[in-house]
Write a structure and sequence with these properties.
With 116 residues, the chain is of the alpha+beta class. It is built from 2 helices and 7 strands, in the order ββαβββββα. The chain has a single domain, classed as SH3 type barrels, CATH 2.30.30.110. The longest helix has 14 residues.
């Protein structure tokens, strides 16, 4: 089962204009109640945040050091939240899990980005 705070390889498909494309790491941001029950629902959408190695910092990015199966330092792109079908996530390829501090920073920046 996937869990909030885990990073997997995700197939974002073909790039369209400014959208992210290709297979790249992404952070599972969806809550674990939905993650646990995904097999019981018809629409198997999972909310994720893409990750990029194009480091630029700022209010809509969270920096992650190279570690475990992350091949290089990278940033979580808070402003690119999207929901994809579960089949796009390579559940056999857990790259890393965010620390509580990192996940807290993601949550804080996501709330600010969504004006919640």
């Amino acid at each position: 089962m996937i869990k909030r705070g885990e990073v997997y390889l995700v197939n974002f498909g073909k790039k369209y204009n400014s959208e992210f494309g290709k297979v790249r790491p992404a952070l599972i941001i969806q809550n674990d109640i939905a993650n646990r029950n995904i097999d019981a629902v018809l629409f198997k959408g999972v909310s994720v945040l893409p990750i990029t190695t194009n480091i630029c910092g700022g209010e809509v990015r969270v920096f992650l050091e190279k570690r475990e199966s992350l091949e290089s330092a990278c940033e979580v792109c808070i402003n690119e939240i999207c929901t994809l079908d579960l089949s796009r996530i390579d559940k056999g390829k857990l790259l890393t899990t965010l620390t509580p501090k990192e996940l807290s920073e993601v949550s804080t920046k996501l709330l600010k980005h969504l004006a919640l």
